[in-house]
Fold this sequence. Notes:
By secondary structure, the protein is an alpha/beta fold. It is built from 32 helices and 17 strands.
Amino acid sequence: MNQQLKAQLKTTFGYDNFRDQQEEIIEHILSKKDTIVLMPTGGGKSICFQIPALIFENLTVVISPLISLMKDQVDALKSNGVKAEFYNSSLSDESKKAIQTKAENNELKLLYLSPETLFQISSSWFRNLTISLVAIDEAHCVSMWGHDFRPEYTQIKILRNQLKEIPFVALTATADRITRKDIATHLGLTEPKTFLSSFDRPNLNLNVKGNVPKQKKIDEILDFIESKPNQSGIIYCLSRKETEEWSQILEDNNIHAAHYHAGLTSDERDKIQTEFINDEIPIICATIAFGMGIDKSNVRWIIHNNLPKNVEGYYQEIGRAGRDGLKSDTILYFNYRDVKLLADFARESEHSTVLLEKLNRMIEFAEATTCRRKILLAYFSEELHENCGKCDICKNPPSTIDGTIIAQKALSAIKRTNESIGNNTLIDLLRGAKTSEMFSKKYNELKTYGIGADLNVNQWMFYITQLKNIGLVEVAYDENMHFKITNYGNKVLFENMKITFAAYKEKEKVVKGKSKVVKETKQLTTDEILFDRLKLLRRKIAVEENVPAYIVFSDATLLQMANEKPMTKNELLGIQGIGMQKSESYGDEFITLIKQFTQDLQPKKSTYDETFELLKSGLSIESIATVRGMATTTIYSHVAKLYLDGYPIKIEDFITVEDIEKIEKIIPNIENTNQLKPIYEALNGEIDYGIIRLTLSYLEKKN
Ligand code: ADP
Ligand code: ZN
C-alpha cells in the first residue's frame, strides 16, 4: 500500500485501510487523468477525491447539486481538520466575500459549488483561482435519461475545455449503461478510466412479504419497530394519505414518527428532515421524495409499504439504510392492488412499454423463490456466484415439489376461459367457489370448475405466482391483468412437460388477541448501554456545534468505542473514524465518559474491604482512620468484623496477652457483653473501646 496515502487516510479520516478500489482510484486521480467512479451509496466515494485534494498543491473544486448536502460535507471535512468551504446561494454576501478571499489566497483545500453558482462566477473571480482538481459529485445529473437531470450539468463541459491540464473526476451511485456513457461524453472527459465497484450492499438484509392482510401488517411492523428502540428508519408509501396514516398509527402506539410528502410546505419539510438527521425524530413515513438530499449514515431500517415501481427506485431507497456499514434491515410489503395501481399509472405514460417492463422486473423480484440478492445484482448486470445466505429466501429456502399437475389444472382453467381470467377469479374457478360471478359467466359449467378444491386460497395464490415467475403465463397489464399462456405454458399443458414448484409452507400462526400491553423489555448489555451513553454525548456535542450527529462520529465509530472502551488518546486513535483532529476535539470528553462508565460498573468495594486493603498495605489502624476520614473506633470495629469473617488478620498484632486476660476476667461480672460501655467502665477506662471490641471478637472466635 502506498504509505503516504495510508498515512493521510489514518491521520485525517481515522481509517486503517482503504476499501476495495479507493486506493487505485486515488492513484489514478493523482496521475492527473480523468476518472469515473461508480460506487453504491455508502461505498466511500468522497474519500476518493478528498485525499487527492489534500495531496495536490492547489484547490479542488467540488461540484454538487444538493445544497443541503454541501454544508454537511463541508462540516464533516472541517471536523476532520480539513480547510474546506461551500459557496452557494444560501450564503450572505458577506460570507461569500470571505470565502472568495480565502479561495483567492489559496487558504482552502476544497471548495464546494452548486452548478448554478459555478456558472455565475465562472467568468469573474473563479478565473483567478489556481485549481488542481475538479470533482463532479452526483455525476448522473448530466444524463437526460435519469430522474435527476440538471441542465446546468451539461455546461460543465465548457469548464472541462477551459481547464485542459487539470484532472476531472466524476462520481455517482447510478450505474446503468446509458448514464455511464452520458457521463463520459456529456461532461467532455478525456479518455476517462471507469472504476466500477460491486453494487452489492452486504450489510442490508432483504425481506419481502406478499399479500399480508392490513391488520397483520400493522402488527408485524409495530413489533418490528418495538424490537428496535431508538433506531432510525423510513417507511416508504405510495400515497400522501398512507404516510399520514402510518405516522398516526405509530404515534398511537407511542412511537415517535412524522410524515413527509410533497404536500407539506418547504419549511415543514426542512424541519422534519433536520430533526430526522439529528436523531430527534427516529421514524419518517414518506413518499419516495424523501431521502434525496440527506446523508444520514445511521438509518437502520427501511420498510416499503407498497411495491416500488421499478428496481432502480427500490435499490436506491433501501440504499438509504446502513451507509455506515452496520447491519440494517429492509422489508418490502406488496399486494396485488399495488401492482394493479402501478400498472395503471404506467399505462397512462407515453413510455408505457418501458415502464411496464420495469414494473414486471420489480414484480419478479418480489415474487422470487430464489436468493433475492442474486436477482437484484443480476438486474445491475452483476453476478453473485453463491446465494447470499442473508435474504428471507436464503434463510428459509422453499423445498420443491413436482408442480406439473397443479400447473396443468390452472393452465387448463385459463384456457377454457379463453385466457380472459385474472388471479382472484381463477382461484374461485379452480376451487369451485359459489360466487355470483361463477354463475353469471357460466364458469360453473366448465370442466375445470372445482378441480383445484384440494388446495386453499393461499396455496393457489402461491402457486399461481410461480406460474408467472417460471414464465408459464404472462399478465396482460392492458387487459384487466388477465393471464395469457406462453409457449412454455402450452408445453406443460399439452406435452406434459415436467415442472418444479417451491412447496407451499404454512405461515406461522398469529396468536389471536395477542396482548400489546405486556411487552418483554429487552435486557441491554453493558456495551449497549455504553453505546447509548456515547450517543447522548455525541448528540450534546452536535447540538453545541450545530452539525448533524453523524459528523461528530458515525454509529460504527461509537459502536467500536463501546466494545473496546479506549481510555487513552492513543487507544482512541485505534478506533476507525477517529483521526488526529477528532481525537483532539472530542477525545477527552469521550474518554472521561468511558472511564466513568467503567468505574461505575466495578462492583462497589465494601467499606470493610477498603479497610482490609489498607491494613494489608501495612498502615496502622490510626493511619487508616486518618486516610479514610473515620473514627479510630470505627476502624477497630471493621478489623473485628474482618477477623470474625475469616480474613487473614493477625489479631495478636493489635492486642496484648495482658489485655485479653484482664477482659476475660471481668466478663463474667458483666450482664450485657453486647455493649462495650459496661466493660470499659468496669476496667476504669484503662483499655480503649477499640481494643475491647477486638478482644471480644478474639474470644468469640476462640470459643
Ligand atoms: P458515498 O458518498 O459513496 O455514499 P461516503 O463517502 O459518504 O459514501 O462514505 C460512506 C461512509 O463510509 C462514511 O461514513 C465514510 O466515512 C466511510 N468510509 C469511507 N471510506 C472508508 C474506509 N476506507 N474505511 C472505513 N470507512 C470508510
Ligand atoms: Zn439470498
